[in-house]
Amino acid sequence: MPGGVSSPVRAFKSVGGQPIVFDRVQGAYIWDVDGNQYIDYVGTWGPAICGHAHPVVIAALHAALEKGTSFGAPSVLENILAEMVIDAVPCMEMVRFVNSGTEACMAVLRLMRAFTGRDKIIKFEGCYHGHADMFLVKAGSGVATLGLPDSPGVPKSVTSHTLTAPFNDLEAVKALFAENRDEIAGVILEPVVGNAGFIPPDAGFLEGLRELTHEHGALLVFDEVMTGFRIAYGGAQEKFGITPDLTTLGKIIGGGLPVGAYGGRRDIMSMVAPAGPMYQAGTLSGNPLAMTAGIKTLELLHNADTYSYLDKITKKLAVGLVEIAHQTGHAACGGHISGMFGLFFTDGPVHNYEDAKKSDTAKFGRFHRGMLEHGIYLAPSQFEAGFTSLAHTDSDIEQTLQAAQDVMSSL
Ligand code: HOZ
């Protein structure tokens, strides 16, 4: 396997050392093959919001497994999950299930172009929308981690339609619209960036994008693969009260099984085959196991206390980490929204990817290694957000902050 892994960020290239090889997960914890236990803040990169291997999800999966692993045909489970997603996410009037966030973003891009008849799109530096060719321009996540912003193998002709702007910079977006009048199909973004570290939108940024896209007849697309059902049940669009035209989802709606989805306004989604002419398909799409895990996960989340609990413990963690960094003499900034957080080793503030790159990544690597030695598993990259779950307790957070105190004192 290239780099010994199935996905690049896992290889520990930017933090040093060897990746940990894991054996099992439960609740807030993860165990390696040598039996060492860690408090986990990766949460399989977001899906494990109820805690790993939640007994309700596992029991439902056992029952679903007895009925078979794939139908390749419609199932009631798809309808149940579709209704739950449509009820929860403000812009969703119709939804199509796929198998990953990458697939969802590839499809939504085709749909943006099909609906508007325009080819150009705007994305933001450091935002990551999966590994499809047209998004590998100044992308975040693994490409940021490994310093490969523009991958070889991607034809220039494909990315020539991808325009980029710094996150939180409305003036740059305005300029792109002015320079490319009537040519831009839409704007796609992570409404809260998680793939360049954790970067929230500045006040007025999402509103400004909504106005600009309306003004120019372009679509606004929120990539909520990370933020969907994570920062609020209805995602960033519920949290910030801005309704995009289309949305991509993944991670949580599969409860830890491979899934993705895209959806939004009925008039746009009606273009998707076979309702309309825009082609997109998938053998395992709407798979009964992924649908089952997603349904049970959303049922567990749909509770008045979920997001206040996540906010409470994550705030304690995020604020605590920055305080400890300052007390121990390190430049640092960070933040959180609900169960998503980040810490940068730079004074900040961090408004965009250029700011994030000022972080001391060598120091982050040493911090990461030290935390591992104290039984804390953080994402092995400065450019990834962290995630908490309903299974994390106050005592887990306190243990984590104690570890951070020890590690930062000796960085
Ligand atoms: N998209 C995930 C990181 N933002 C994938 C990372 C992985 O699985 O290695």
Explain the overall architecture.
With 411 residues, the protein is α/β, with parallel strands linked by helices. It has helices at 55-66, 76-88, 101-116, 141-145, 156-159, 170-179, 205-215, 235-240, 266-269, 288-301, 306-327, 353-356, 361-373, 394-409; strands at 22-26, 29-32, 37-40, 94-98, 120-124, 162-165, 184-189, 219-223, 246-250, 260-264, 333-337, 340-344, 376-377, 386-387. A 7-stranded mixed beta sheet has the order 4-10-9-8-7-5-6, sandwiched between helices. The two termini are 33 Å apart. The structure holds (4S)-4,5-diaminopentanoic acid. (4S)-4,5-diaminopentanoic acid (HOZ) is lined by residues 7, 9-10, 45, 141, 195, 384.
Gist of the model:
With 411 residues, this protein is α/β, with parallel strands linked by helices.
This entry's quaternary arrangement is single chain
CATH level-1 class of the largest domain: Alpha Beta
Physical arrangement of strands within the biggest beta sheet: 4-10-9-8-7-5-6
Q: The CATH topology of the largest domain, please?
A: Aspartate Aminotransferase, domain 2
Number of domains: 2
Q: Largest sheet, described in full?
A: 7 strands, mixed
- Sum up the overall morphology in one term: globular
How many runs of DSSP E, i.e. beta strands?
Answer: 14
What do the pLDDT scores average to? 96
Small molecules in complex: (4S)-4,5-diaminopentanoic acid
The radius of gyration over CA amounts to 20 Å
